Amino acid sequence: MTIDNRSAFLVAVGDLVEPLTGRTLSQLSAQIELNNNAVTITVGSFNQEFKDQLTGLVERLVAQYGLGDIAITILTRVPDYLVDESRENLSKVKSIIAVASGKGGVGKSATAANLALALAHDGAAVGLLDADIYGPSVPIMLGVEGATPASPDGKVMAPVAAHGIVCNSLGFIIDSDKAAVWRGPMASGALQQLINDTQWPELDYLVIDMPPGTGDIQLTLAQKVPVSAALVITTPQNLALSDARRGVDMFNQVNIPVCGVVENMSFYSCEQCGHINHIFGKEGGDLLAKETGVPLLARLPLEPSIRSDADSGNPSVAADPSKPVSQLYIELARKVGAFVWSRHQAATDNVPIIEIQ
């Protein structure tokens, strides 16, 4: 094994393409280290399928360049977006993903919960913040309704653990039977307090289930929290699309990148005969993506099990990650993670780190 072979091998590894971004490992600033008889590659998103594929590709390159017996290790380190050190309780959070919709009733909260669980499924440390002030539903969906966040010092709250992630919600604080009859400034203040007073642990991603709409609360979140990426949820029907357009525009106005659109309740497949029925219309998500210039990341079905799993406190990805609808959420999570990785590289304009020792 010569130095030239080792150098050529590292260049070839750097030229391997991450399929969800279409960019090479070098372009994504992946760290590639060759140390004696071991190669370690550090990527920027949790995607077990890609890591398995990458291992196979590197094994072929090891054989092609005659490197002999080389141990291959693939690690993940999510880019750290949060630069505002004054937000003490967010200092351990690397990336924040906002899940939003222009209107209610499009399945935003169920999507946010399953997205968080899908990110964790591939190995990420994930938190879920229920910022839907007027309709906090995360405690019910995660099966922790009635839980009380611990407060070590009486000032900050520790998030509640559920299904391998941690979460916090106004639903833990107010009476579940009482309406939050608050004007905009009061609601915005409550939300800021919830964000600032939660002592999040080390997290790769914090998913925020935003309230529907584009008013005071949404602007408070967008402007006060360093969001890495936003995901907009809609249904195919024209009414939802109109509001979703405004949601995309809001994020554009406050310079938060929209990683994509999710068309929820896209179709219903009859359990008996398999007939597909587009109850809320067809291809609305494609139209929204085309008009706004953001990609359509997923079409999620109108699936009875999504509702029943959430109602039982055991969302689909937690209930059975192998079933088809759970796989759709996992694919969505991988696309969102890839966007966060690629967007960080573009923002920082890093160069690839290639080391030979």
UniProtKB/TrEMBL annotation:
Family matches, as InterPro entries: Mrp-like_CS, Mrp/NBP35_ATP-bd, NUBPL-like, P-loop_NTPase, YlxH/NBP35
Record-linked Pfam families: ParA
This protein's GO CC annotations: cytosol
Residues in coiled coil: none
Gene Ontology terms describing biological process: iron-sulfur cluster assembly
CDD domains xref list: Mrp_NBP35
GO molecular function: 4 iron, 4 sulfur cluster binding; ATP binding; ATP hydrolysis activity; ATP-dependent FeS chaperone activity; metal ion binding
Annotated residues for binding of ATP: G102, K103, G104, G105, V106, G107, K108, S109
Keyword list, A-Z: ATP-binding, Hydrolase, Iron, Iron-sulfur, Metal-binding, Nucleotide-binding
Role, per record: Binds and transfers iron-sulfur (Fe-S) clusters to target apoproteins. Can hydrolyze ATP.
Protein family per UniProt: Belongs to the Mrp/NBP35 ATP-binding proteins family.
HAMAP family referenced in this protein's UniProt entry, alphabetically: Mrp_NBP35 (MF_02040)
NCBIfam families reported in the protein's UniProt record: PRK11670.1
Assembly information from the UniProt record: Homodimer.
Name of the protein in its database record: Iron-sulfur cluster carrier protein
Organism of origin: Corallincola holothuriorum
